[in-house]
Amino acid sequence: MTSLLETGRTHDCGSLRGADIGGAVVLFGWVHRRRDHGGRIFIDLRDRAGLTQVVFGPDLDASAHELGNNLRSEFCIGVAGTVISRGDNKNPNMPTGEIEVEVTRLEIFSESETPPFSVADDDRLDTNEDLRLRRRYLDLRRPSFQRNFIIRSKVATLTRVCLAEAGFLELETPYMVKYTPGGARNFLVPSRLNPGTFYALAESPQIFKQLFMVSGFDKYFQICRCFRDEDLRNDRQPEFTQVDVELSFATPERVFAPIEALMQRLWQDVLGVSLELPLPRMTWEEAMGRYGSDKPDLRFGLELHDLGDLAKGCGFKVFEGAPYVKGICVPAEHAATINRSRLDKLTAFVKQREHGGAKGLAWARIEDGGAWKAPFAKTMTAESMQAIAARMGATPGAVLLFIADDFETTHTALNALRLELRDSLNLLEGAPPWKFCWVTEFPLFEQNDKGQWVSSHHPFTSPREDHLEFLTSDPGKVRARAYDLVLNGNEIGGGSIRIHRSDVQTRVFEALGLSQEEIDQKFSFLIEAFRYGPPPHGGIAL
Q1: Alpha carbons 392 and 304: distance in angstroms, whole number
Q2: Are 84 and 108 in contact, with CB atoms under 8 Å apart?
Q3: At CA 442, angle to CA 531 and CA 202, rounded to 5?
């Protein structure tokens, strides 16, 4: 008799439906769950496509039933049988829930020891993480993880198709690159042929894709691995995959167009969600001013209100002496649960360093008639309180929350506070599930802990043409032709128009404090390439 493995499976475990009733099938998979009822054995058979209930009974096939008594969790098996209706016992929670397979033949491909945790408990991820990582191959059998990988594969395929249709070429760049001492923290690979020297694993294809543009490849993309030796955080890991895109003769809008089309295609084909284009745009200054963040979550309100002008002469010295005074208005319908105890906790929250390290949180509750109930209300002029409440759109029952501090502290603390209120007040209930936006015109430079100017993105980002004069006189004033794609408060992509003129690139290097020797050592090949007619170009990494 030909083995089932030689015969091959006829269906996967997620595809059988009512239309298949009466058909003979062969299924392969793993024992997900087992139940014994009245002499019959019921098995949920699992593969990456889903689950199918298969039934063993002495009246169906005695030898298969006898062998089925030995089946345990995660045995890898093959079955042959007939598809029948489950009648009144249909399971509406399973795509295959209207049918089951009566087994007439069973082959056990391999047995399994008792797993250290249950793969079938898909929603329970409280198993010790170290154990899950040691048995990663078992953890990845969970249907939820399998679905994630299937979606990832579909996204990669659609990305290639969509970008190819838009005229992009998929081109590869080296993973092992020249190591430059004093640069970012790279993973190093010793050179066997040149003892004492090292390659570095590429942080990104940035320079190579720019050289592709100089070479005349108008549109490039790559789904590539990047390697960065950074401290582990929720959004940081040593290696990751990104969709890398670059195009010649680019403006920001010419970069946005194919990326928006890609997002629209992915959301429609993978999630069944229609995205309206174009996606919203806002400058970095607008994002910081309205939300306190360069990656704002637009699914809910609680926007920041600038009160600096109204704070002058208001009578409250904390406000009068601060360079920035901003606030959030929690509407009455959400503010009922914000009592004094909750306000004390919110004050402690914004004082934490990771939440901005503010000196404190000023608050006021608007009572009937517009009066303020606040610890500092007696020091404020009535006109100031009325003007502040009007600007913030406060009505009776609302709670006003204020931070008065420097730029960084004020915006960081209010952003953290806004997100904390989003979660604690359930503000996403009934909110739209997806909110995209482009954030543009970031500062080109920022200062590090030593007060030195460093690139906000990377040193190849083009400054605005009308800001070139500030490169030496006022670097903090220079805005970049840079942009991030933000989704639900998370940066999912970032890019810029690149510098294509060697004189501008040299001026940016000098603004960063690089000597001519350092420029020649690290970037001479790029500067040299820019002497041979480079096109204006830009791109993004997702």
Answers
A1: 9
A2: no
A3: 55
pTM: 0.91
Cα separation, 33 vs 137, whole angstroms:
18
Q: Is residue 115 part of a domain?
A: no
Domain that residue 242 falls in:
146-175+202-283+432-542
What is the C-alpha to C-alpha distance for residues 246 and 220, in angstroms, rounded to an integer? Answer: 5
Contact of 324 with 308, CB cutoff 8 Å: yes
Do 105 and 208 sit in the same domain of this protein?
no
DSSP 379: G
DSSP 18: G
* DSSP class of 534: P
Count of Cβ atoms closer than 10 Å to residue 514 Cβ: 17
Question: What length does the chain have?
Answer: 542
| Domain membership flag for residue 58 | yes
- pLDDT tens, 114-139? 999 988 887 777 778 899 999 999 99
Query: Using CA atoms, how far apart are residues 129 and 115, in angstroms rounded to an integer?
Result: 15
Return the DSSP state at 465: G
Q: What is the CATH number of the domain that holds 328?
A: 3.30.1360.30
